[in-house]
């Protein structure tokens, strides 16, 4: 059982001992710290916070605890109920709220949940703000409102539709072009919020939808991380239905993966590459992704004479660098699209609409579109952490071992070779070391990963 406290929020497993898991006590404690932080930031009498959740089983329990804690602090709550991470982000800005909380553990399995915290722009908190909230939580110096000053709660279940409207109104989204193509698409909503909002968006764009796991029960039918090994059902169904392609999202709908018409993975890394290809073809400019993302985005950006830069892993780091470098589009190689024309947050709805528009203007299939991009292959591995493992020592020794190569220590250790790379870092969301590698063939990527893992194991001995 696990509780991870980081600058981006609190994430943990349900049940068990307080302080070691995401128990009701921990949910109240960190909601109190966040509310207290907001009250310190703003001088106005009444604050408003937007709350939404994904469909996971523990959602209603954590949701009620968090909402009522904020009310107890004298903060008004706009409750979106079942929602998505990007929808809450959009709602914070549209409502001119003072903050937002999304109750979701994103790609983690059903026993996990989390409080993901937003600022008044609907963006994830800065590192400094996150650290301050953790400090407030440790001190537990909360002052709750007296009875006449309790917050109020307002319900609004229309925001997923409003979010769809915002996406369809984007200049680069061409609904009529998509409608003319009569696409047929299979959607795997992993029995969460995406099972509602993605089919709804597609139908508005004139797409025939085949739904798979689109009932928001919270009982995930497979591991909710949209990786190839978890997606055999949709890969088979795309072929069976003779669909143009398939769409997979994670439980909170900020990650997006496509399945080609032949039942093969388009590749999470290539979600951003394809969308960026379309966006840059219409509005040339700069791009940003994190350092664990494919080199293919760099290649596409340079094709349109833009500048590509890599940030540390984490949405807040990508967004910060995008703003600094005026990036037209950015995101993460896990299928996260960040398109500033709508908002600075990963958004699968935006990704779907832009990808459909791109495909509608191409005289080729999804598989042939994928084949048209620079070919890179990734291997994503991890090592479980135990208390006796010294991660800093591992990273230090690996840095020294590969000192003759191009090295970045902005986020863990990234080793850039001439035609491949390896990135080692401690996860922000799980007790693991992530080892990502990329090369020009799957075998080379896998071989590099195995070599790096063996070298780490020698250090741990």
UniProtKB/TrEMBL annotation:
Looking up InterPro entries in the UniProt record yields: A-D-PHexomutase_a/b/a-I (IPR005844), A-D-PHexomutase_a/b/a-I/II/III (IPR016055), A-D-PHexomutase_a/b/a-II (IPR005845), A-D-PHexomutase_a/b/a-III (IPR005846), A-D-PHexomutase_C (IPR005843), A-D-PHexomutase_C_sf (IPR036900), A-D-PHexomutase_CS (IPR016066), Alpha-D-phosphohexomutase_SF (IPR005841)
Report domain Alpha-D-phosphohexomutase C-terminal positions. Answer: 397-454
Q: Where is the Alpha-D-phosphohexomutase alpha/beta/alpha domain?
A: 8-142, 172-263, 270-376
EC top class, as a word: isomerase
Q: In its UniProt entry, what is this protein called? A: Phosphoglucosamine mutase
Q: Name one GO molecular function term.
A: phosphoglucosamine mutase activity
Q: Which family does it belong to?
A: Belongs to the phosphohexose mutase family.
């Amino acid at each position: 059982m696990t509780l991870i406290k980081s600058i981006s929020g609190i994430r943990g497993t349900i049940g068990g001992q307080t302080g070691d898991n995401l128990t009701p006590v921990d949910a109240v404690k960190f909601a109190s710290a966040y509310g207290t932080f907001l009250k310190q930031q703003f001088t106005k009498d009444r604050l408003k916070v937007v709350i939404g959740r994904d469909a996971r089983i523990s959602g209603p329990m954590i949701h009620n605890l968090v909402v009522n804690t904020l009310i107890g602090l004298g903060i008004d709550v706009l409750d979106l109920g079942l929602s998505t991470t990007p929808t809450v982000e959009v709602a914070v800005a549209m409502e001119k709220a003072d903050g937002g909380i999304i109750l979701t553990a994103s790609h983690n399995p059903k026993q996990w949940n989390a409080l993901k915290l937003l600022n008044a722009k609907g963006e994830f908190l800065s590192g400094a703000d996150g650290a301050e909230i953790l400090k407030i939580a440790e001190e537990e110096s909360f002052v709750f409102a007296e009875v006449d000053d309790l917050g109020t709660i307002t319900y609004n279940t229309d925001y997923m539709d409003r979010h769809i409207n915002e996406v369809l109104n984007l200049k680069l989204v061409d609904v009529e072009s998509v409608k003319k193509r009569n696409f047929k698409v299979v959607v795997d909503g992993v029995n969460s919020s995406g099972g509602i909002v993605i089919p709804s968006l597609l139908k508005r764009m004139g797409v025939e939808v085949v739904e798979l796991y689109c009932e928001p029960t919270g009982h995930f039918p497979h591991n909710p991380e949209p990786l190839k090994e978890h997606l055999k059902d949709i890969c088979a169904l795309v072929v069976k239905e003779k669909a143009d392609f398939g769409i997979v999202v994670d439980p909170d709908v900020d990650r997006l993966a496509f399945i080609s018409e032949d039942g093969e993975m388009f590749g999470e890394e290539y979600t951003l590459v394809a969308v960026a290809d379309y966006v840059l073809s219409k509005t040339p400019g700069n791009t940003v992704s994190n350092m664990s993302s494919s080199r293919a985005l760099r290649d596409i950006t340079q094709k349109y004479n833009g500048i590509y830069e890599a940030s540390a892993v984490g949405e807040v780091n990508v967004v910060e660098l995008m703003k600094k470098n005026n990036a037209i589009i950015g995101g993460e190689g896990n299928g996260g699209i960040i398109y500033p024309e709508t908002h600075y947050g990963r958004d699968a709805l935006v990704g779907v609409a832009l990808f459909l528009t791109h495909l509608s203007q191409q005289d080729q299939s999804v598989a042939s579109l994928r084949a048209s991009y620079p070919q890179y292959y990734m291997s994503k591995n991890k090592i479980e952490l135990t208390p006796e493992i010294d991660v800093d020592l591992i990273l230090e020794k690996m840095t020294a071992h590969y000192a003759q190569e191009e090295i970045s220590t902005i986020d863990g250790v990234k080793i850039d070779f001439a035609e491949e790379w390896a990135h080692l870092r401690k996860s922000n969301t799980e007790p693991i070391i992530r080892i990502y590698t990329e090369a020009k063939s799957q075998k080379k990527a896998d071989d590099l990963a195995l070599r790096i893992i063996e070298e780490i194991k020698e250090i741990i001995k």
